[in-house]
Design brief:
Layout lengths: L5 E8 L5 E8 L4 E5 L18 H12 L11 H11 L10 H19 L3 H5 L5 E3 L1 E8 L13 E6 L5 H22 L19 H14 L8 E6 L6 E2 L4 E4 L4 E3 L1 H14 L4 E3 L7 H10 L4 E4 L7 H9 L5 E4 L1 H4 L2 H13 L3 E5 L9 H8 L4 E5 L3 H14 L4 E4 L3
Parallel strand pairs: 4-16, 5-15, 7-11, 11-12, 12-13, 13-14, 14-15
Antiparallel strand pairs: 1-2, 2-3, 5-6, 6-7, 8-9, 9-10
Helix pairs in contact: 2-3, 5-6, 9-11, 12-13
Bound molecules: 2-phosphoglycolic acid and zinc ion.
């Protein structure tokens, strides 16, 4: 019943208008569909999105090799991974492209769920009960996700700390974003209400001003930072890091940091704004520098994204260096769902909290909401507004009524 009978791919567009791969996988009775997302601040060691020749080449390779998937049990992600490896034996999917690896494995998980009439999260990882991850909203964007006048810092984020209903936590993130829009318009009559790739505001201001006004948005709604809600920051530091000079260069703000200065810069922001979530505070190979922050701030989620790139072997290094206490899970950084789940298992076994995440270039799919649930992720990072962002949040709302769900997870 769950055996794969056909595989069909096509090129569609992502939320940035770039080409991406969508794949349909069928069993005798059902069809599962998934399209790959793509990043702008891409980690050096993540799966290559496409081979040389782009999406067209990737699709050609899939079509030439579609027969390799026929007859595989769609519930068997390891078999899907092994079939991908017979086509592409590189360690970063530079032959077939990580986008196709993502779409094939996610579409097969999807059809497995449909054919068995079970939720996708259960098809990915079967257990008795599940909790929903807490949505992590993006309220202000800069860096690689916005134009030149915006802050150097890539993302200012918000999430709720007090445990409430899923609807309430989503609404809170949206309220803070909306209130920030009001404050930005009051501060600058030329503010165009322009937004970054993930839906956060993209104002013309520096890092300090952006953090200050984000804090004010929370407080003016009656929230105490660090109590009901907290701010987070994705520094995406590899964007600023200049390897030759060994310095972090903040063009917009007009200053540079040595490694030591970068650690103090981040520490100061954490303390000043009671930040509870810090992603890629140093560059993607600075495992030891990250560990300084992890031991300095045990109550803050110190998160690897470009640092750990959903890569099992790199996560082992981060664990042995005590570089982070949390890690981003982006299935397309790994390529296949099987490899992403290996990463998730390793993280969980070592008390590394997981943050399942979208990419800045997204599809309208909502499968990552299920990945967040099946991996027991603490947070689900999905931006804030725009159909492709809200799709994941709406899926959490739909799922929240299922019998197998036991409310929200703990931070
Ligand atoms: P990306 O960035 O999807 O553009 O790579 C998101 C992030 O850094 O978290
Ligand atoms: Zn990041």
């Amino acid at each position: 019943m769950t055996l794969i009978t056909s595989v069909r791919g096509r090129i569609i567009y992502n939320s940035r208008g770039q080409s991406t791969i969508e794949v349909d996988i069928s069993t005798k009775t059902h069809t599962g569909r998934a399209a790959a997302p793509s990043g702008a601040s891409v980690g050096r060691y993540e799966a290559a999105a496409f081979p040389k020749g782009g999406a067209r080449k990737s699709l050609d390779i899939l079509e030439d090799n579609a027969s390799k998937f026929i007859g595989i049990d769609s519930t068997d992600q390891k078999a899907i991974y092994e079939a991908l490896k017979t086509i592409d034996s590189t360690d970063n999917y530079s032959v077939i492209g990580g986008s196709t690896a993502y779409a094939v494995s996610m579409a097969s998980a999807q059809v497995a769920a449909l054919t068995q009439d079970i939720p996708l999260y259960k098809s990915i990882h079967s257990k008795e009960h599940y909790k929903l991850p807490i949505p992590l909203g993006n309220i202000l964007g800069g860096g690689a996700h916005a134009g030149h006048g915006a802050p150097d810092i890539q993302e200012i984020l918000v999430f709720t700390l007090a445990s409430r209903s899923i609807r309430d936590v989503i609404q809170t993130n949206i309220d803070v974003h909306k209130q920030l829009g009001v404050l930005l318009a009051e501060r600058d009559i030329t503010f165009t209400r322009g937004r970054s790739d993930e839906g956060g505001w993209a104002p013309n201001m520096n890092n300090e001003q952006a953090l200050e006004i984000s804090a004010r948005a929370c407080e003016s709604l009656g929230y105490t930072l660090g109590k009901e809600v907290a701010l987070g920051v994705d520094f995406a530091s590899s964007t600023q890091y200049n390897q030759e000079q060994d310095r972090y260069i903040y063009d917009r703000a007009g200053f540079e940091n040595s490694t030591g200065e970068q650690i103090e810069f981040v520490s100061d922001i954490i303390k000043r704004y009671k930040i509870k979530y810090v992603e890629d505070a140093v560059h993607e190979e600075a495992f030891k520098d990250m560990s300084i922050l992890t031991s300095r701030f045990p109550d803050v989620l110190i998160v690897g994204d470009d640092l750990t790139v959903t890569n099992y072997t790199i996560l082992q290094k981060a664990i042995s260096d005590k570089s982070c206490n949390a890690a981003i899970l982006k299935v397309n950084q790994a390529g296949s769902l099987y490899e992403a789940m290996q990463f998730a298992d390793m993280a969980t076994q070592n008390n590394i909290k997981l943050i399942t995440s979208h990419r800045s270039g997204e599809s309208n799919d909502s499968q990552i909401a299920h990945v967040g649930i099946s991996t027991d992720s603490t947070l689900l990072k999905t931006g804030i507004l725009g159909g492709e962002r809200v799709a994941k949040l709406n899926e959490l709302l739909r799922i929240s009524g299922n019998d197998l769900i036991r409310g929200l997870g703990e931070l």
